[in-house]
Amino acid sequence: MKVFLLAIVNTNSKPCNVLEKVSDVSSFSFFQRSSIDDFLTFFATTVAERTSPGQRQGVDENNYTAFAYNRTDGLAAVVITDTEYPNRVALSLAGKLLDEFSALNPKASELTKGDGRFQPQLNKYLVDYQSPRQADVIMNVQMELDETKVVLHKTIESVLERGERLDNLVEKSNQLSDQSKMFYKTAKKTNSCCSIM
C-alpha cells in the first residue's frame, strides 16, 4: 500500500489551483518521476474539480485511486494511492488535511497559491500514512480484533483436534448444574442455523 500524492486544491477557480501538494514518486525510475508527478497533479485537479461540493469520492485510474473531498467552500483535498489502500483511511486523511489547512489559513478558499506553511505537515502525513495500520487508530484496533479472533479459533480447534468435543465435556462435567447443561443444549439448538466464523 502506498500514498503517492497529497494535495490541497481550490476548486472555486477554473481551472483549479493546487495550493499545496507533496508527492512521493521515488518508487519510479529517475527519468519517469517528473512525468508521473505531472500526471498525478493533473489527476488530482481533475478529480477535485469534478467532485461535487460537499461530497467525497474515490476514482480509479490504472493502478491509482484518487480520493477527493470537496467542501462546500470550494476547498478540496486529494489523496492519491495505489488501489489496495483502504478507502476509509484515505478519505479520513483528506478530511484531516482540509481541517488543518483551514485552521492555518482562515481564508483558504480565497487563496490562489499556498504560502508553504502547510508543506511540513503534508510531508509528515505523506510519510506517516504510508502504513495505514500505524497511522489510523480504528484500522489498528480492527486488525488487533481480527488477530484475537484467529487466536480464539485456533484455541477451539486445538481442543477439537485432541478428540474432545465440547458437547462431551459438558455432559461429563460435574461442575455444571443441570440448568446450565440445559441452557447449553438450548443455546446450541437455537444457534444451529448459524455458523461462527
Automatic annotation (TrEMBL):
Residues 137-197 form the V-SNARE coiled-coil homology domain. One of its GO terms (molecular function) is SNAP receptor activity. It is found in: Cell membrane. InterPro entries: Longin-like_dom_sf, Longin_dom, R-SNARE_YKT6, V_SNARE_CC. Keywords: Coiled coil, Lipoprotein, Membrane, Methylation, Palmitate, Prenylation. The keyword Signal does not apply. The keyword Coiled coil applies. It is a lipid-anchor. GO terms for biological process: endoplasmic reticulum to Golgi vesicle-mediated transport. Its main location: membrane. It comes from the Eukaryota. GO terms for cellular component: Golgi apparatus; plasma membrane. Residues 8-126 form the Longin domain. SUPFAM superfamilies: SNARE fusion complex (SSF58038), SNARE-like (SSF64356). It holds the Pfam family Synaptobrevin. Belongs to the synaptobrevin family. This is Synaptobrevin homolog YKT6. It comes from Smittium culicis.
